Every structure is written in C-alpha cells, then in structure tokens.
Amino acid sequence: MSSDATSESVQSIEESANARPSATEFEMAYQARVAIDRIRFAIKHTEQFGPRSDQMREAGLQLLDALQRLETVDRRFQARSRSRGSRTAASGARQMVNSQKERTERETTIDLPAVPERLQAEVGRCTG
C-alpha cells in the first residue's frame, strides 16, 4: 500500500471517528438535560412559593439565563448527532443514557409529606 493510500485511509478513519459524538459527549448531553429539568423545577417553585423580592427576581433571571445556555448546547448536540447520521453509535449511547436516567430517577425520588391545608392557604395569601 502506498503512503498516499495509507494517509487517505487514516484520514477517512479519523473523519469518521470525529463525525459522530463520543460517549463522553452523550454523557454530557444527558447531564445537561438533567440540569435543565432541575432548573425548570427550581424556577417553577421559586415563582410559585418564593417571596416576591428583587433578590428573588434576580435569582430567577440567573436561572433563566443558565437554562437558556444549557438548552442552546443541547440543541447543538442534537443537531450534530442527527446531521452526522451516526445511528448505531447514537443507539448504543441512547441505551446507556436511558439506563443511567432510570438509575438517577430511582436515586433522586423523594417522598415528601403532604403540605397542610393551613400552610397552603397562608402561601396563597402571601403570593396574592
């Protein structure tokens, strides 16, 4: 095999490897989605139950900024993984992410006690 053919083969293999997201990139995308869900939860609850103050408004804006940044990264990742046509790598990584997601959901599930009606009424009066 000539050196030109060898270098073309190596270049082709490198391009193929770089064309699809790595397992680490799939893991980071999964972690970004977990963070997105948790930030949405925090925003919803601070709006619903938090005191209406300038500090809470600023915290809400910071959370929204973080959420938008993570969603932008997630969209880029999705576009990259779709455009490269790496179906088999994506399928294997998707199975890994789904199993990790199930494990994370089992680990983070918390049974909270019911909020007493009196407290719900007080929160309702405070939040207007």
Question: Any descriptors?
Answer:
mainly alpha
Uncertain regions spanning at least 5 consecutive residues: none
Number of domains: 1
The biggest sheet amounts to: none
Note the beta-strand portion. under 5%
Q: How much helix, percentage-wise, in residues?
A: over 70%
Radius of gyration: 23 Å
Strand runs, count? 0
Which secondary structure elements does this structure contain, and how are they paired or packed?
Layout: H1 3-19, H2 23-49, H3 54-83, H4 87-108, H5 117-127
Helix pairs in contact: 2-3, 2-4
Molecular structure report:
By secondary structure, the protein is mostly helical. The protein has one domain. The protein is 84% helix and 0% strand. It has five helices and no strands. It has helices at 3-19, 23-49, 54-83, 87-108, 117-127. Helix 2 packs antiparallel against helix 3 and helix 2 (23-49) crosses helix 4. The radius of gyration is 23 Å and the shape is elongated.
Question: In short, what is this structure?
Answer:
With 128 residues, the chain is mainly α. It has helices at residues 3-19, 23-49, 54-83, 87-108, 117-127.
